[in-house]
Amino acid sequence: MHVRVLYHDHCFDGATSAALFAECYAQRLSPSASFEFVGMNHGTGDVFAGAFSDDPSVEHVCVDFRYSADPRLGWWFDHHQSAFMSDADAAHFQRVQHRRHFYDPKAQSCSKFLADRCHTELGFDTAPFADLIAWADLIDGARFASPEQAVMCREPALQLMTWVEQNRDPQLKLRFIDDLRRRSLAEIAAESYVQTALAPLVEQRDEVLRLLRERAVLEAGVVTYDVVDQARLQVSKFAPYFLYPEAHYVVGLSSLPGRTKLSVGSNPWRSDRRTANIATLCGRYGGGGHPAVGAVSLLPDEVATARQYAAEIAAVLKEAARQEG
Ligand SMILES: [Mn+2]
Q: Ligand 1: distance of its center to the CA of 144 in Å?
């Protein structure tokens, strides 16, 4: 049997889900199975174009990625809220009741959900992968212990999370999934293919922190920063809380390709305290997001407008922070 594994690309949970399923398949279903791995990316149009083979000897599995009504989809595991691209797809999933299609939008990670299902359904021994599964669950749920853990990413699993999100080398994607099946996270993170790629990312992170130390200001519970003059500087949404762990909210301005971005967030380590609805607040300015984090995108030449919006939003959030105490 040849198994084609479609998995969520550029994502630690996606790579881990792919490795766990392949390992389960080889151990419990077919020791002689061969595998190929195809990274899948969300987007508009038919994202499954070319993903399914007409060869009847190929078994298809899709992990940590959206549903396809294609009858060739043999196995499916997902936990994304946005798993169904249309009502027709959702209705198809409900109607077919496929015994090898598994979906739980309440699962924090696909890795843990898949491992649990493979244990129950196929008797897969997940114990050797307990560390990997626990880290995938923490990472996909963004349950970082502290801003320092989220920003510095010192633990091997978090180094590998950073690596997998930026890697674009197709051969190394396969090597990484293979490594996840047989080696510890510490062993993989120490590999030169990982450390070489991480070095420039660590430099960029330090550059962001240096700039934020100069420019980010905490006032009345709200951190504001403006790095619009730094082209394409990506500020991690956790970095402001690393500098100001007590902050209630963050309002930041940056320049990304083709847009001026106004980022608005609430402190994820103090989510119990949040009273402002950031999706609603950003919505007033043509943006959107979630109750806890959102953004407004403007054109590259609308910096003055963006600064005006940022000041207004910061004022609303300072009042919210004042009442939160
Ligand atoms: Mn996931």
A: 16
User: How far apart, in whole angstroms, are the C-alpha atoms of residue 198 and residue 189?
Assistant: 10
182 C-alpha vs ligand 1 centroid, how far in Å? 21
Q: Where in the chain is the domain with CATH 3.10.310.30?
A: 216-324
The number of C-alpha atoms within 13 Å of 71 and in the hemisphere containing its C-beta is 2
Distance 158 CA to ligand 1 centre (A): 15
Digit-coded pLDDT (tens) for 177-220: 999 999 999 999 999 999 999 999 999 999 999 999 999 999 99
CB neighbour class for 267 (10 Å; exposed up to 12, middle 13-18, buried from 19): buried
Distance 114 CA to ligand 1 centre (A): 11
Ligand 1 center to residue 21 CA distance, Å? 14
Confidence of residue 44 (pLDDT cuts 50, 70, 90): confident
What separation in Å is there between the alpha carbon of 64 and the centre of ligand 1? 5
Residue 319 Cα to ligand 1 middle (Å) = 35
Tell me, in angstroms, the distance from the centre of ligand 1 to residue 214's CA: 35
Quick check: 127 pLDDT over 90? yes
pLDDT at residue 285 in the model:
96
User: What is the CATH code for 216-324?
Assistant: 3.10.310.30
What fold, for 2-195? inorganic pyrophosphatase (n-terminal core) (3.90.1640)
Is 307 within 8 Å of 229 (Cβ atoms)? no
Residue range(s) in the chain whose domain bears CATH number 3.90.1640: 2-195
